[in-house]
Amino acid sequence: MDLFELFLKHSPTALDTFAPNEKCVVLVRLSRTGKIVAARTETPYSNLLDRYDYFHGNTVGIIIRNGENLYLGWTDEKRIHIQDDLIVSQIITTQMPSDEGRPQSEFEHRINETNRKHEARKLLDGIVSRSFVYNILQGVADKTNILGLPRGVQLSEQSKYVVYSVADNWISNDKYGDFTALIKRCSQNIAAGDTILTVQRVVPERTWGSPYRAWNNVRGRGDANRTHDCAVSDCTLYPVNLVETDKPERHVKYESRYKPVVKGESEWREVKQRADTFDYELKHGRIPAEDIRNVEYYEVPGDKHVYVSVKKTDTNWRREEEYIREPRANFELWSDEYTNLTFMNSVWLEAVICSKNLGGWRVGGTSVDYAYAIQYLKTAIDYVRKREAEEQKCIDAVDRNITLDPSWPVMLSEWKLKNNVHRITPYQAKRFVKAQTAGK
Question: Could you report the per-residue pLDDT of 24-44, keeping only the tens digit for each?
């Protein structure tokens, strides 16, 4: 809390962010959810994240600003519980109907009644907490000159002196999709040379025994365990050093006759499995030929393995002289551990930042929130804007009218994805301009 107060004191930007008007009252919390996402301490070599309680994360603070004067006070975390906005304009409660014609069991009735009572207590607790905060602010207005309001002004009612502003109601914008969908699109054509942003620190997994053993070589290539002394830093830009794709796998889908245990007519159900398993079971009679139909073979693309080059740390302990070239190793990153920025653009990232629509983004096996994501969004948009400045120079050298459209970075990303173009050169800029002008 002391750090937050110093932050407001010494940063004009922070002051204008948390108290945007010359005269205002703002409620703040150190954490929106009361949780923080961090590496799982029980299994430090699993690269899994977990959610932990944020110390004083749910404490509600009251900021009062009057010109250059700022006042900050903290409420009792055990007594004041406000999960959303201080201002509640409308409360809508709905009751989900049970299945028509099906009476609720005693267990279902007990669960529904428990949930109803919990929601009622939560609502009442929020109302009492808000009433307490309003009383504090009204006392400040009546007994002090901190706000400088005329006598008799009620903060619980809007007037020419009191205007409500609901800051938590962010603009919802799904025009470009959520962040998870954008990450998936940008990673489809990943290739060597692409720039990726790591979203967690990654170390080699250790199952059991010595980390130098071959069975602990989860992140490396080949039989030699060269990644035992490597690690990938968090929130860091890396160039992709190598992408390997597994061979396609033959699969099969068919309809199988399902025979119910009790009396009744059999039905056909679709089944999908590996082709070699299906062929073996069909050959040895484990699948009766008369119980299958509409057999169709198809190929499933192989999985991609993305590697970055990282420095080895303990390779020189037996040598007296230094290496001429720094020892490095290819370290594999999995799809939820990075974001490919090669096809990303600033318009998409700005939309995600404004809407906070992460789409259930998961990192390290855990669903992360906006507070975790914002540092990666900031790093990503800073890099992307620098790259777009260079791309704009190449495009403007061909036709300056293209970049007059504010959405030109989106058009460029769509063109790059469609044509699998990873870097804009003068030649690729000419192709892009030709495609845009031909479409008009």
Answer: 888 887 776 777 777 776 666
